[in-house]
Structures are given as C-alpha cells and as structure tokens.
Amino acid sequence: GAVVSQHPSRVICKSGTSVKIECRSLDFQATTMFWYRQFPKQSLMLMATSNEGSKATYEQGVEKDKFLINHASLTLSTLTVTSAHPEDSSFYICSAATRTASTDTQYFGPGTRLTVL
Amino acid sequence: AQKVTQAQTEISVVEKEDVTLDCVYETRDTTYYLFWYKQPPSGELVFLIRRNSFDEQNEISGRYSWNFQKSTSSFNFTITASQVVDSAVYFCALSEAEAGTALIFGKGTTLSVSS
Questions:
Q1: pLDDT tens profile A25-57
Q2: How many cross-chain Cβ pairs, A to B, lie less than 8 Å apart?
Q3: Model confidence over A2-30: pLDDT tens digits?
Q4: Are B92 and B34 in contact (CB under 8 A)?
Q5: Which residues of chain B does A110 touch, with a Cβ-Cβ cutoff of 8 Å?
Q6: What number of other Cβ atoms are within 10 A of residue A90's Cβ?
Q7: Closest by alpha carbon to A67, among A107, A95, A34?
Q8: Which of A115, B31, B68, B98 would suit a FRET pair with B15, their CA atoms being 20 to 30 Å apart?
Q9: Chain A contacts of B98, Cβ < 8 Å?
Q10: Any idea what DSSP says for residue A59?
C-alpha cells in the first residue's frame, strides 16, 4: 500500500529554536498534503492544507508565520515550527492525499513528536 | 458544519468480551466518507475502514464489524472477543467526498482490554 514517511520521528529542542519536519509520499504523487496536530490525550486537529506549488491554507487560529509550510514537490511537504515554545510541544502528523481512477484517499505518516524545553 | 461525536471517552473490558465503540456524525453533505482509525501507544494511525455514504451495508473483517446507519447518523464499531492487543485509542472520522479534503476526527475512545 501507499507509504508516507515523516522525519524526524522525535525531536527535542530548546525554546526559541526552529524545527523542520518533513513529510514524504514514498511511492505516489500527492496532490494535497495535510498537517494535523495532536496534543496529549486529545484528538487530531487540522492545522493546514497544502497543495503542491501553492500557498498553504491554514485553519482558523493557526499562525501561518509560526508554522511555515512548504510543498515544493508532489512528494514532499515540510512544516517548520519557528521560534518554538513549550506550548508547541505536540505530536504532528501529516497525511498525503491522492486520487486514482478507482478511489481517492489519504495516507497518514507515522507522526513526529516535538518536545520544546 | 461537520462534526463527529464519540461520546465514550474510555472503555474498559476484560479479554474475550465484545465491545462497541459509538460514533455519531453531522454533515450537510449527501456524499461523504466515514473512517475508523486505531492509534496504539506508538502514535501511528492504523487505518481500519472507509465507508462512503451510499454504502450502508454492514461490514465484517475478522473480529471487527461496523454498523452504518444513515437514519441515525451513526457508524458504530464492534470488536468481538476482544484481546489485550486491541487496547488503543480509536478515532472515528468524517470527510467530504471530494479528493483533497481533510478528515474531521472525533475525540477518540480509549479502549483498555485486560487479561
């Protein structure tokens, strides 16, 4: 089946630093990629939707200048958390959507656990 | 607006018991998809099922079964003869039928199966 990878799987950083998370679709071209955030013991909340070659669309309440999303190719999207603070500590999950002749669906990456000290 | 409600926050059962996880959804769309995912402690989401709004047939896959009822806007998930390995958080989710739309997740139900 389709595979989506995320790198890194886990990152610990100091407050004020920036962290980049990569999301790659390994064996298919993703027309759209989504970024979700999951705080401990909570549900997944959509942060933004990104289409290759265009600006990401952010959900209400998500700061676009803090969470920079770049979707440079059909297989790669990056999320950069700029000037991270402890409240940004969370589990970040991407998903990649594709459409084939028979179905359209999205595949989730394994997630990146960010801890900001 | 679309919404998914999983009223059961936590469920605890003993091995071999059957357990049903409830999911109620709201949408104005006539065409939509419903999903169930399992999230073990590792965090990675495990896809269980996707059902489109036009297919109300119940589905069985091994010990798992799903009951989709449009009349009550419910998509319940039953695990038969539960096992310790079934312990996880289970999410029900909803999306529009168009490609490239995000999933709206319920708050999840934490299932604990003890031996």
A1: 998 888 889 999 999 999 999 999 998 888 899
A2: 52
A3: 689 999 999 999 999 999 999 999 988 88
A4: yes
A5: 42-44
A6: 21
A7: A34
A8: B68
A9: 104
A10: P
User: Given the structure tokens 């997740």, which residue do they identify?
Assistant: B105
Question: What tokens appear for B47 in the block?
Answer: 């896809």
Report chain A's C-alpha Rg in angstroms: 14
Q: Which of B71, B77, B80 is nearest to B106 (CA)?
A: B77
CA atoms of B16 and A13, how far apart (whole Å) = 44
Q: What average pLDDT does chain B have?
A: 94
Residue A8: cis peptide before it, omega within 30 degrees of 0? yes
Rounded average pLDDT over A90-102: 81
Q: How far is A111 from chain B (nearest CA, A)?
A: 6
Chain A positions touching B44 (Cβ under 8 A) are 108, 110-111
Contact A108 B104 (CB under 8 A): no
Q: Which residues contact B74 (CB under 8 A, 6 or more apart)?
A: B22, B23, B24, B25, B67, B68
Q: Per the structure block, which two tokens stand in for B106? A: 């319920």
List residues bridging with A29 in a β-sheet: none
Of A43, A91, A93, nearest to B106 by CB-CB distance is A43
**CA distance readout (Å), B40 to A92, A115, B85:** 15, 20, 9
**Exposed, middle or buried: residue A35 (CB in 10 Å: 0-12, 13-18, 19+)?**
buried
Q: Is the pLDDT of residue A100 over 80?
A: no
The encoded tokens of residue B22 equal 């409830």
Task: Return the structure tokens found at B16.
Answer: 């071999």
